[in-house]
Amino acid sequence: MKKQVVFTLLIAAAFVILAAAPASAVIQEIVYRGTLVSMNQSAGTITLNAGYTYGCTFSNGTSRCTWDPIKPENLNGTVPDPSVFAILKPGDPVVATSMGGPGGRWIGIAKVFPTPGIENWIATDLVGDPDSLPVSLASDYSFSYTTNPECGNCTGSVCNALSAAIVLNSTDRPVLEKTLVKGEKVLYNGRNDNSSVIISFVQGQGMADKCPGKAGIVGPQPISTFIIHVNQGLAAPAPSPTSPQAPAVQASATAMTTQPAPVPVTTLPTTRAAGSAFVPLYALGVLGLLFMARKF
Questions:
Q1: Left (φ > 0), alpha (ψ -120 to 50) or beta: where does 233 sit?
Q2: Sign of dihedral through CA atoms 261, 266, 269, 270?
Q3: Pick the residue with more confidence: 85 or 234?
Q4: pTM of the model
Q5: Is-contact 137 143, C-beta < 8 A?
Q6: Which of 90, 132, 263, 292 has the most crowded CB, counting CB atoms within 10 A?
Q7: What is the distance between the alpha carbons of residues 186 and 252, in angstroms, rounded to a whole number?
């Protein structure tokens, strides 16, 4: 009888531990590479014929990320912004990231072209969240951003973004740093190779845990939408002859000069996790309690 009571108490304690564990509600993101098959502007969707997925393996504290072939399939999903229909057309090679399962909702789409010796293809145009796409920008540019959450306008783990602080690098050197509000765009054309980059901040989200009193909140990852176009200039490899050019804009930024350099092989992150590190610790606690139960 004593053994039964003790075992029951230990099982109850195990359930309490599991109930107290913070749930990771990060939504799955799947990255595909393939060819744009069709576009339905009235429905706001595109169809991609996917032939590869992007994934990473971890060993001895290091990661290895590769494109792995899959059985080709057509995937349909909504676009992150209607500008996709002016930038892309059927036949373009693209990298696209879906959220919540295959197809359904594209949160990032990049128009890419192959580069000899580089597995991660280079993007001339990007629509959606740059952090969701494992591609580098053409002409040795790279891009990063952070958002400023509007703490009075939050839902669960995410808030509306008041602004986005962007950094544009050339040869790993910052050449443009600026804070953009929703709907604002900027043009950088300060290099001597006639290249330029247009960046537009459409809208965004920020993490609620950056706000006072909201530390530790977990849930779906924030998603932001940008439109980025790289004019490759004189020395860069040409994109597919079927690729259209992005519309011109009048915005400008302070010019800064740097020398052109080879295209980089670094990639942007493709996964964003929150709270999942706690799960193994709680699992070990449960196993420890059950092990103690066996001794009674």
A1: left
A2: positive
A3: 85
A4: 0.72
A5: yes
A6: 132
A7: 5
DSSP state of 209: G
What distance in Å separates the CA atoms of residue 32 and residue 235, rounded to the nearest whole number?
29
* CA 22/CA 218 separation, integer angstroms: 7
Phi-psi region of 101 (alpha: psi -120 to 50; beta: other; left: phi over 0): left
Sign of CA dihedral 142, 219, 79, 68: positive
pLDDT tens digit sequence for 35-50: 999 999 999 999 999 9
Instruction: Return the pLDDT at 287.
Output: 38
How far is residue 191's CA from residue 189's CA, in Å, rounded to a whole number?
A: 6
Is 60 within 8 Å of 108 (Cβ atoms)? no
Q: Terminal CA-to-CA distance of the chain, rounded, Å?
A: 11
Rounded to whole angstroms, how far apart are CA atoms 205 and 147?
7
**What pLDDT is attached to residue 115?**
72
Residue 137: φ, ψ to 5°: -75, 150
Distance CA 183, CA 87 (A): 18
C-alpha–C-alpha distance, residues 163 and 184, integer Å? 10
